[in-house]
Design brief:
alpha+beta; five-stranded antiparallel β-sheet; 20% helix; single chain; Phosphatase 2c, domain 1; globular
Length: 202
């Protein structure tokens, strides 16, 4: 009698934290995670400006992306660009992780930041422009994740140049703790700030 063994499925631990600029109750930033077919979609949004009007557009963008529920990142950004024409515009970063393979895809427009912390630290780059305004054609970049890799996506309300040595427990703390620590330790008080953390575990 033959027995077959398969590896247990990979697990993606995720969290998102958003904090408004000092003096405001709501944020023009947004950060959220969707579990869709085949994997996890993460979206980070930084609407131009602050306060209620910026927040209203951030809510509209979340509704549009959630309604699509698609991992065709370049197409999604292009469609969102058309949806937001005539608005104040936003920077948007989209990331999709295929749980079964650990393959990650990223596409971003504007001042969104993508960093991988692991045995190798990697940055992926958003294209210049503003979704809903003037933007370059989106492109998609890919990474192969390894066990224990931590993905950090944040808006420019967070200092994107902090070294891993400034947060030694980044790779071991829970995802929610990491996201909150980054926002409240490295966030800028004069801007909205948001962060998404994804930890890939085999």
């Amino acid at each position: 009698m033959r027995s077959s063994f398969t590896d247990p499925p990979a697990r993606i631990e995720s969290a998102a934290v958003v904090r408004p600029i000092a003096g405001e109750i709501v944020s023009g930033d947004d950060a959220f995670i969707l579990e869709i077919e085949r994997g996890t979609l993460a979206a980070i949004v930084d609407v131009l400006g602050h306060g209620e009007e910026a927040n209203a557009l951030a809510i509209r963008i979340r509704a549009f992306l959630t309604g699509l529920g698609s991992d065709a990142l370049v197409d999604v950004l292009s469609r969102l660009h058309r949806e937001c024409r005539g608005s104040r515009g936003a920077a948007v970063g989209l990331c999709f992780v295929e749980a079964a393979t650990g393959r990650l895809r990223f596409s971003g427009i504007g001042n969104t930041v993508f960093r991988r912390f692991g045995e190798v630290e990697t940055r992926l780059v958003s294209r210049d422009g503003t979704v809903g305004g003037t933007m370059r054609t989106p492109v998609e970049e890919t990474l192969q994740l390894s066990d224990g890799d931590v993905i950090v996506m944040n808006t420019d309300g967070v200092d994107s140049h902090f070294p891993a040595s400034a947060y030694p427990r980044l790779r071991t703390d829970r995802a929610r703790t990491v996201a909150a620590t980054i926002v409240y330790r490295f966030g800028k008080s004069h801007d909205d700030a948001s962060c998404i953390v994804l930890r890939y575990q085999r």
